[in-house]
Amino acid sequence: MIELTKIQITDKPSDVSDGITLVFKGEKNLPGVSAAEFDGKKLSTLLLRCEGDRQMYVGLGDKPKVTKNILRQAAGTGVKAFLKIGAEQISIDARSFPEHIQAMVEGALRSAYKFETYLEPSAQRKNSLKQLHLLVASRDLKAAREEARVGEVLAQAENYVREIGNQPGNVVTPEALAEHAQQLARTRKLICKIRTKKELRKEGFNAILAVGGGSAHPPRFIVLEYRGGPKNEKPIVLVGKAVTFDSGGISLKPGDRMDEMKFDKMGGTTVLGILRAAADLKIKHNVVGIIVAVENLPGPEAYRPGDVIKTYNGKTIEVLNTDAEGRIILADAMAYACKHYQPRHLIDFATLTGAVVVALGSHKAGLFVTDDKLRDQLVAAGELTGQHVWPMPLGEEYREQIKSDIATVKNLGGKEGGPSTGASFIQTWVGEGISWAHIDIAGTAWSNKELSYQEKGVTAFGLRLIVEGLFRI
Ligand code: BES
Ligand code: ZN
Ligand code: ZN
Description:
Layout: E1 6-10, E2 18-24, E3 45-50, E4 53-61, H1 68-84, E5 89-93, H2 101-112, E6 131-135, H3 141-166, H4 174-188, E7 191-195, H5 197-203, H6 206-212, E8 220-227, E9 236-246, H7 266-280, E10 286-296, E11 308-310, E12 316-318, H8 326-341, E13 345-350, H9 354-360, E14 365-369, H10 372-385, E15 389-391, H11 396-401, E16 409-410, H12 418-427, E17 436-440, E18 446-447, E19 457-458, H13 463-471
Parallel strand pairs: 1-6, 2-4, 2-5, 5-6, 9-10, 9-13, 12-16, 13-17, 14-15
Antiparallel strand pairs: 3-4, 7-8, 8-10, 11-12, 14-17, 18-19
Helix pairs in contact: 1-2, 2-3, 3-7, 4-7, 6-8, 7-13, 8-12, 10-13
Bound molecules: ligand BES and zinc ion (2 copies).
One zinc ion is lined by residues 243, 246, 264, 325-326, 351.
């Protein structure tokens, strides 16, 4: 459930009985404990009870190495641990960290969210984070309130992405995702245009239709526009892969962990959240979100290995494996984005390849980019937000691997360099000279284990990266 937490920034010690104190490594004279009992190791915790009050120490590690990201994690760790033992009102002593209020609010609110829509009431958490108090020095009050508001918007947008993303494929179908977009547009004054199957057919989105052919739930092509910049400024266009379930299609995946492919919609779902946060923060850029929602299933009308597809801009694809479907739907979307928007930057998010998970694990997303300045901006944004991206190569050698004898390209590049051949495939549909980045989030979009500031499941990776790291800088 998404919690409604009241946030209070105050310069007076609160009377809330559950408090978090953040502790550097080796910090001396902590009330109630000896150095041997709690040494401030990064993200370690210790709970103390004194007269009805509960104090949670959370370690920050070495003082010189403490970053915004560690404070986000530390606040999240403390709040998550407190919620597990029934807390509802929590205060954090933030007096030593006036520059990191936003990050602490993000961590705390992210920890408050848990996906439990389908649990029996008896199995659901009984408590929720009703109030969060942050104690700051009087002179920091005003700035802290503004920072907290930004943190709140970001965390709420992330929790919104997580709530939709964690839903299974039988609930969040392409139509359902389109309805979420429409609802968001209504409440945020975004412009929203949704194309159904009939319109997709009429306008030649044949790649999307091919991938969606096997499912009884027809595809949706969702465009959301937010105008916060000067009228004639070119927009930043964000494109997201939203395969609501990826069975692999005729090239069926093995059964083991196939259930996780309900998360194959996270590129597109995150784009939805980015538009929400951009609108709520009144970002001063024009931003367009394009979300391609399809389900990849085998069926009588499914596309097959060997098929050749003529895409939106006339370039053709030889299909060798129906499980490499993300790049196929993105072909139409990239061509559309370039034709209609002449983007200032074009950035796509996709859970594109298993190979990027092998290469980078769940720690960093693969970044493929044609514009050095944009690359540097995104890498710096990753450091700032804790959503790290790692530059990986594009180039002629990889394009060579996807050459087809009968079409512009084939959708399989062989065993070697999987993330790069996937990216090079998408590049085929990016107009000459456009500042483009592809972010392969296959390893970072969800987590199979609990993290410092969240429970298992969808992470909303990419939202802070773009909104905080790119839009607000
Ligand atoms: N959605 C998958 C990629 C994926 C795999 C994401 C594991 C997260 C975890 C994608 O559509 C896919 O199946 N890719 C294939 C491509 C291959 C056939 C070239 C893959 O990675 O195996
Ligand atoms: Zn696939
Ligand atoms: Zn996929």
